[in-house]
Amino acid sequence: MVLTLKVISSAINYNDGLLKEEDLREAQKKYRLVKLPSLIEYFGYCLCCGSHFAGPVFEMKDYLEWTEGKGIWAPSDKGLSPSPYGATFRALVQAGISMAVYLCLVPYHPLSRFSEPVYEEWGFWRKLSFQYMSGFTARWKYYFIWSISEASIIISGLGFSGWTESSPPKPKWDRAKNVDIPGVELAKSAVVLPLVWNIQVSTWLRHYVYERLITKGKKPGFFQLLATQTVSAVWHGLYPGYMLFFVQSALMIAGSRVLYRWEQATNMGLVKKALVFINFAYTLLILNYSAVGFLVLSLHESLALYRSVYYVGTILPITLILLGYIIPAKPARSKARKQQ
């Protein structure tokens, strides 16, 4: 899966290098390849073993600069190269904690429970809470494998992403970061989930799918979001559960945007806080409801599980999207400026 992204991005970046620079977006200018890499460079990039577990994916231009000691890897007045050991240790500790949490939770929330008669006997709230805990439990195995991969990329030096603006400057190791665990589990809005979950792949999708579907001079809409999520579903595999999950994700994000716009449109402190909490609860509910399709993959089983909780995670986002058209909201700041 990661190799597929590398091959596609290499071809697109080389094609961008043949185009006029003034016609390109910032990301295209940054990663374009004006020279065809050699076979050794290409295979070295594609087969760099540190990212073969489950990512992270990174750009060929960054890989080439790292191998040649150029760009941010060139010697500077801040030092020849920062030590990667502290950041590597933190990633390994995170991996250990993630695996421990997963092993502790998975016996109590096995996916096999969905097909057992006892699940059908439960009431609505217990079914919904079990779906939440199944999604929550499953995420920790991804946290584990991404943390291990992050540690391997960091210790190689490729994970270095520059220096902070603080005094004295400190090294940043964000290039290999694929997940922000508190950011996922405590997300205040579904909109931020692509920024904290499978971060590098989300960045890839934004640069190579989402932004390239936006017509120049126009704002992106639901079509760009749905198309991007559909590409992500196909990339994961041609299983109905993946398709259901990513279509659900597009609806979830669109519904969360409506809540955010309403939040920004009000100056009433209590209402604003209530909308922030509603968006937080909405994100938790819809994310873990949607994750059922991602986990079980089967169309029949996914729909049966969605039906067991009355399709609440599908109806709610669609309702919010429709309400967004009926009750449009303009940011409170814009109103204040107009009054001034």
TrEMBL record:
One of its GO terms (biological process) is phospholipid biosynthetic process. Keywords: Acyltransferase, Membrane, Transferase, Transmembrane, Transmembrane helix. The keyword Transmembrane helix applies. It is found in: Membrane. GO terms for cellular component: endoplasmic reticulum; membrane. GO terms for molecular function: acyltransferase activity. InterPro entries: LPLAT_7/PORCN-like, MBOAT_fam. Its main location: membrane. The chain crosses the membrane at residues 142-163, 242-262, 274-297, 309-328. This is Lysophospholipid acyltransferase 1-like. It comes from Gossypium laxum. The lineage of its organism: Eukaryota, Viridiplantae, Streptophyta, Embryophyta, Tracheophyta.
